[in-house]
Design a protein that fits this description.
The chain is α/β, with parallel strands linked by helices and 408 residues long. Strand 1, helix 2 and strand 2 form a beta-alpha-beta unit.
Length: 408
Amino acid sequence: MVAVALLAATALTASVAAAQTSTTPPATTPASTAPASTTLPTTALTRSTISVGGVVDPAYAGAAVGAQARIARANARGGVVGRQVVYVGTSSDAKTAISGVVPISAVVPAASPTLDTATLATSKVPFFGPADQAAWTGNTSGFGFAGAQVPKFSRLTSPAWGITMSALLGGATGKTIAVAAPPATDTGELARASLQAAGFSVSAVISVSPSPSPELSAIAPALAQQGPDGVVLLTDGATTGALASALAAQSYIGTVATTQDFYRPENPAIASGLTVLLPYAPPEQATAANKVLLADVEKFAPGTKVTAAVIAGYWSADEFVAALTKAGRRASAAKLAKTLRSFAYEVKGTVGPTTFPGAHAQPAPCGALVQSDGTAYFPAVGYRCGKPVKVKRSGAATSGTTTTTVVK
């Protein structure tokens, strides 16, 4: 276990701030996302081609490279059920992507913190991506490869926090964890439900306003007291960094866990001493599928650093390829749309199972934990899945009155 006491508090806070303000792609990640082919079809769907385009924000630099790497392998093997997938290019916004000179059948990848999901839904263009923003949740045109990562409160939630933390800590019985989350959100209650279902004792979620906030110095001791075995921080990046540093300053030795926002292979110092929950098996876990991913990216763009954005782009494209394969040979746009209405995506031991339509509103019931020593990430708990957790809530999200049972 990597204890928070190992954190260099000042370095962590500075690293978080730098990561949040910089939008410059790492030098090892190609910024170019030009089409793989210079001859582009004039229609989105022909007997031999299907055209897609990406919507990628600079914050997700590398997503287009990951998507094209997966598409390149499919095309090298003769295409997908008789069609070559043509990547027409990358736009920074949805309207530009769907109204471009070259029409597209789908947005692959869709990776932006400001993705205009409403425009994509209105245009009935399916989009594939990480689904890590609230705007994805409930949008039936969006297909997150690991399901909706920002679910609203509902009767079910993912068991990922519970099953992974239990594995990390050698069981949940007799162990107590604290959860901190932003006010007026459901994320804290859903994580609490997952942890309770695994057998942890979890007090009421501690509501934390975004940093900077004068209350943070007082919140860290409360977290340590409520969670002697572990603390789960679901706050924004700056607040999480500040709280982690405050816990380190008071020599807290429990596990400090947080979200995938702190998985930055290009900058592992940002997560030094932290445990990070991911919705997929990271490349550091050498699954068969991850070995193929790394080989595909290296072949398409030699020397590329495989970042979270590259991974997101790759699995987005893989999910699209799976959907197109299921739709069948020379499927029409209508057939692809029908296929997507009831569609299951899984890469054994690495991503999913992600089952739609449910996954429009809920994440896949799976996760993995990684830890950083400041120079690199390493697997802490391998990718695993569990049964969805049934949640019954009485009162406000911060009242601490949530009860949970595991779905049988």
